# Entry
Amino acid sequence: MKHSKRYKQAFTQFDRQKRYDLEEAIQLLKSLPPTKFDETIEIHFNLGVDPRKADQQIRNSIILPHGTGKTVRVLVFAEGDKADEAKKAGADHVGLDDLIEKISGGWFDFEVVITTPNLMGKIGKLGRTLGPRGLMPNPKVGTVTMDIGKAVEDAKGGKVTYRVDKFANLHIPSGKLSFPPEHLRENIRTIIAAILRERPATLKGVFIKSITLCSTMGPGVKLQVSAATQEAKG
# Structure
């Protein structure tokens, strides 16, 4: 892969072999050559789980104390009072058959999909379309619920979902580069604490193998796993 001049310059400003504490890593990312846009800071985990085992398929959601800094477009499948509730809470798209038809035609102008349990049978036909994009509503992450208003407000207010991939990795947005360092730190601590709670009861050995922070256009900065997890525990 060919990297930009800025990316290569960024690599010269830190030790790739070093494992940094959280405060150092955030400051380092903020000190790298700037881009023309406000980059997202992501945290990446490599876990010691086997995603092929049902009890080790890590999937959940969490609300970040300072949000993600991103405007999230929310689509809600709902009818009647629940549709009104979704609109009042600020959903960007609300409907049912009309939205199913648009999505079937290749429209994806949204990042979160929420629905009520009684409509899942009808929405199921979109599984092959929404599933691969991580957009299929799921009760485990709170997107299949009767409390539509709260679900919409959570999605708009900084809720992020995560799901382990086939290589046992997690990729989670944790804020914008422009956030104050302490806000990024609190968001990241919240994420790490949430992942620690996901450790499968049957897992033997190391759970979190590595943690890396990076900005959208920047290289990864590795964290000291033991220090980062201890800080997250408070």
